[in-house]
Design goal:
The chain is mainly α. About 60% of the residues lie in helices and about 0% in strands. It is built from 6 helices and no strands. The N and C termini lie far apart (about 60 Å).
Length: about 140
Amino acid sequence: MDRFLGPHTPEAMAHHQLTENWFNWDMDHPSLNETLIAGCASYQAFNRYLSGHDLYILPRSRRELVKILQRYAHDAIHNAIAKARSTLEEGGYSRICHLADESIGKVLDQNDNTSYLLELHRPQRDHMSNNLTASPSRHITIK
C-alpha cells in the first residue's frame, strides 16, 4: 500500500483517523469533514483493490480500473455517511465523491501505478503455459 499511498499522505492519515477514532470521528464539527471522508475512501478503494476481494472481472484498461476504484471509493463514502451522526452539508456528497475521484486519478498518474495495478491480479501466462505443456502423459492399453 505504501507504493500508492504512503503513511504520511493525506489519504493514509484520514484512513488512520477514521479507523482509530471510529466512535467519535464525526463529532468534532457540526457537519461532516468532507476532505477526511474523501481521503479515507480513496485509501480504502486502493486497499480493497489490492486485496482482490470482490474483483470478479479484471480491468483491461485504465478507464475500467478507474471505474472499479471509484465504485470502491463510493462504497466507502456511503458507509462513512451511514455511520456518521453529524449532518452532511448541501452538495457535500458530490464534493466528497469528486475529491476521492481526484485522489484516485493522482495516484494512477504517478510512476507506473496504472500498469502495475492492471497486471496485479492477472494470471502469469508463462506459469500457465508451462503447466499445460508439462502435464503427465499416461499409457493406455486397449484390449
